[in-house]
Amino acid sequence: AVGAGAPTDLAGLQVVVSAGGTREPIDPVRFIGNRSSGRQGVAVALAAADRGADVVLVAAHVDEGVLAEASTRPSVRIVGAGTAVELGAVMAVEAESADVVVMAAAVADYRVAEVSPRKRTKEAAPEGGITLDLVENPDILAGLVRSRRHGQTIVGFAAETPGEGETLLDRGRRKAARKGTDLLAVNEVGWTRGFESADNAVTVIDAAGEVVAARRGSKRDVAEALWDAVLVVRESRAN
Ligand code: CTP
Ligand code: CA
């Protein structure tokens, strides 16, 4: 439900937002994970719901407290996903009926090649250390772009650490081109930035690499700026 005075500029839109981070099992008790709390993705989902959209939130290990906020909303349906492969399967299904798809989840690039059915023991391992074989996970976002429906808008997120000789924006532009996204929200992360914090700073670039929005503030502020940008690209597309 939308409260009095709330904007309804996303009314009638079906949106799917992934949030959180995948976990790739090593054995029944261990996994390879990442530091994503799901806050930014949940903020994107809640902002859309408050602006009138019907929302599917695909949650991969989102922090309990973060997810709680979304679970009371009648216009937000929550679907869980654990691994990258599971997330890919859920996204493929949910995207079929979506006008806008946002991949805010941190997807593991690799999974363990052979997951042990039993807990690995040191006793059974070579002395001094072990090696885990990893295989690349499918690129969910690139797959969504490949099967994009007519009129569908696909948005990615890119967390980047500043590197040698290349700006964040240049990296984002290359990534947007590689993925074929309509919009890519690029943000700087580091050991102390981005993940656990309430705030975020994001630059949004379109398919041509043009900066269409830049916002520093709460994750909700960033989410609102992202939806503004989505509306701009959808309107320009419609003409
Ligand atoms: N993504 C995805 N599937 C993957 C990896 C990433 O859908 N297997 C999505 C993320 O959800 C995000 C976007 O792609 O929206 C960018 O993720 P990122 O990790 O920055 O891109 P990668 O292509 O994995 O490149 P990098 O080598 O920088 O990790
Ligand atoms: Ca990656």
TrEMBL record:
Record's cofactor remark: Binds 1 FMN per subunit.
Residues that hold CTP according to the record: D109, K119, P138, D139, I140, L141, F157, K175, K179
Pathway note: Cofactor biosynthesis; coenzyme A biosynthesis; CoA from (R)-pantothenate: step 3/5; Cofactor biosynthesis; coenzyme A biosynthesis; CoA from (R)-pantothenate: step 2/5
Entry annotated with the keyword rRNA processing: no
Molecular function as annotated in GO: phosphopantothenate--cysteine ligase activity; phosphopantothenoylcysteine decarboxylase activity
Record's catalysed reaction(s): N-[(R)-4-phosphopantothenoyl]-L-cysteine + H(+) = (R)-4'-phosphopantetheine + CO2; (R)-4'-phosphopantothenate + L-cysteine + CTP = N-[(R)-4-phosphopantothenoyl]-L-cysteine + CMP + diphosphate + H(+)
Keywords of the record: Decarboxylase, Flavoprotein, FMN, Ligase, Lyase, Magnesium, Metal-binding, Multifunctional enzyme
Record-annotated DNA/pantothenate metabolism flavoprotein C-terminal domain positions: 10-230
Keyword Hydrolase assigned: no
Annotated region (Phosphopantothenate--cysteine ligase), positions in chain: 15-239
Cofactor(s) required, per the database record: FMN; Mg(2+)
EC number(s) from the headed UniProt entry: 4.1.1.36, 6.3.2.5
Family: In the N-terminal section; belongs to the HFCD (homo-oligomeric flavin containing Cys decarboxylase) superfamily. In the C-terminal section; belongs to the PPC synthetase family.
Function comment: Catalyzes two sequential steps in the biosynthesis of coenzyme A. In the first step cysteine is conjugated to 4'-phosphopantothenate to form 4-phosphopantothenoylcysteine. In the second step the latter compound is decarboxylated to form 4'-phosphopantotheine. Catalyzes two steps in the biosynthesis of coenzyme A. In the first step cysteine is conjugated to 4'-phosphopantothenate to form 4-phosphopantothenoylcysteine, in the latter compound is decarboxylated to form 4'-phosphopantotheine.
Protein name per the record: Coenzyme A biosynthesis bifunctional protein CoaBC
